[in-house]
Amino acid sequence: MIDLSQVWVKIYVSETLLPQIRVGQEVEIVPDGSKSSLQGTISWISPKAEFTPKTILTPETRTSLVYAVKIRIPNKDGILKQGMPVEIHLQGS
Predict the structure, then answer these.
(1) CA distance 79 to 39
(2) How many C-beta atoms lie closer than 10 Å to residue 33's C-beta?
(3) Where are the domains of the chain?
(4) Looking at residue 57, what is its pLDDT?
(5) How does 45-59 read in b/e, with b if 16+ C-beta sit within 10 Å?
(6) Contact 7, 76 (CB under 8 A)
(7) Which of 2, 11, 15, 81 counts the highest number of beta carbons within 10 A?
(8) How far apart are CA 75 and CA 90, in angstroms?
(9) pLDDT value of position 26
(10) C-beta neighbour count of 31 within 10 angstroms
(11) What per-residue confidence (pLDDT) applies to 39?
């Protein structure tokens, strides 16, 4: 059994978006197929890129750097299920 009262989602953000996010920041989570949204909090940001570009960095390949981010989401009503796709919106975006 899985406790779904609080869940987390792992997302990947590009290097260009990284300066706009911080641990503790509130985000909006919209489950696929739903008109309602939930609030979550960024709880962890990876200190290094998940994918490393080739030896030579060009403006085109720099965007291939992505960083893992975990978001904690209170889910008391059980709206989110394990493996459910969601869309994330930064507050004020």
Answers:
(1) 12
(2) 7
(3) 6-90
(4) 55
(5) eeeebeeeeeeeeee
(6) no
(7) 11
(8) 18
(9) 97
(10) 16
(11) 96
What local confidence, expressed as pLDDT, does residue 14 receive? 83
Return left, alpha or beta for 18; rule: phi > 0 is left, psi -120 to 50 is alpha, else beta: alpha
Please give the pLDDT value at position 29: 96
| Residue in 12, 10, 20, 1 with CA at minimum distance from that of residue 72 | 10
Tracing tokens 């909006």 back to the chain, one arrives at 28
For residues 68 and 47, the answer to whether their CB atoms sit within 8 Å is no
Q: pLDDT under 50 in the chain at which residues?
A: 53, 55-56
Q: Cα–Cα distance between 26 and 28 in angstroms, integer?
A: 7
Closest alpha carbon to 45 in 61, 25, 30, 64: 25
Residue given tokens 């004020």 in the structure block? 92
Domain 6-90 is found in CATH 2.40.30.170: yes
DSSP H stretches of helix in 1-93: 59-62
